[in-house]
């Protein structure tokens, strides 16, 4: 079973997205901020990380960069997620180390395609 680390501080977004992904038979691990996301990536070695970019404690940009710099986690694909889609955000996310980027609210079929491109 594919394990996804969902790094999301908004409880409603976390609940909605995790339930939708679980219906597609993914195992979901949660982190509420970038620091927890970084720690969870190291501890659990998920197959994919869904990283909200606007997070408390450590934002998604910094958490992504740290995950990609760490030898034990650099291989884990990260899909950056943001509700504040501004021009240049995708490029900024890729530069920070994200392997892909998507906007919120999440278009589930599009996100599932992105996840499957990293897990198949």
Overview of this structure, please?
- The protein is α/β, with parallel strands linked by helices and 120 residues long.
- Helices cover 44% and strands 20% of the residues.
- It has five helices and five strands, in the order E-H-E-H-E-H-E-H-E-H.
- Helix 2 packs parallel to helix 3 (60-69).
- The longest helix is centred in the first third of the chain and has 12 residues, at 11-22.
- The chain is globular and about 30 Å long.
- The model has no long low-confidence stretch (mean pLDDT 92).
Question: Topology, pairings included?
Answer:
Layout: E1 3-7, H1 11-22, E2 27-31, H2 34-44, E3 48-52, H3 60-69, E4 78-82, H4 89-96, E5 100-103, H5 108-119
Helix pairs in contact: 2-3
């Amino acid at each position: 079973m594919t394990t996804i680390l969902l790094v999301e501080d908004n409880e409603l977004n976390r609940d909605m997205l995790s339930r939708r992904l679980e219906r597609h038979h993914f195992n979901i691990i949660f982190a509420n901020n970038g620091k927890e996301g970084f720690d969870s990536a190291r501890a659990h070695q998920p197959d994919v990380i869904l990283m909200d970019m606007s997070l408390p404690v450590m934002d998604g940009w910094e958490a992504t960069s740290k995950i990609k710099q760490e030898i034990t986690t650099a291989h884990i694909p990260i899909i950056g997620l943001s509700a504040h889609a501004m021009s240049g955000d995708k490029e900024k996310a890729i530069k920070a180390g994200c392997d892909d980027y998507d906007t919120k609210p999440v278009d589930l079929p599009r996100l599932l395609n992105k996840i499957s491109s990293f897990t198949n």
